[in-house]
Amino acid sequence: MTVTLYALDGCPYCEKVHDALEDAGVDYETAWVEALHSERNEVKRVSGQRGVPVLVDDGHGVTMAESDRILEYVDRSLA
């Protein structure tokens, strides 16, 4: 199972998701993105938008944005 978190250094919403993944013991990779929205082409490619955080769970075929939704998903599906 491959889980990837697209995140921006210093983003408090990204930190919340990171902490939830760590607390749940999820093995994941972090893909650090550029500070400028216009430079976040990889995030746009995988999620259709340029905001972060974005979680991609290849094992379950899930890609989602919005930290609250991601936190709920981690709690229900990955913990």
Our estimate of the beta-strand percent is 15-25%
Q: CATH topology, which one? A: Glutaredoxin
Shape summary: globular
Poorly predicted ranges:
none
Give the count of helical stretches. Answer: 3
Question: What is the CATH class?
Answer: Alpha Beta
Please list the strands of the largest sheet in the order they lie side by side.
Answer: 2-1-3-4
Mean pLDDT: 95
Number of strands: 4
State the helical fraction: 40-55%
Distance N to C terminus: 14 Å
Strand count, sense and closure of the main sheet? 4 strands, mixed
The CATH superfamily is known as Glutaredoxin
By secondary-structure content and strand pairing, the structural class works out as: alpha+beta
Key structural traits:
alpha+beta, four-stranded mixed sheet, 22% strand, globular
Q: How does this model look, in words?
A:
Helices cover 41% and strands 22% of the residues. By secondary structure, the protein is α+β, with helices and mostly antiparallel strands. The chain has a single domain (7-78), classed as Glutaredoxin (3-Layer(aba) Sandwich). It has a 4-stranded mixed sheet with strand order 2-1-3-4, sandwiched between helices. 27% of the residues are buried.
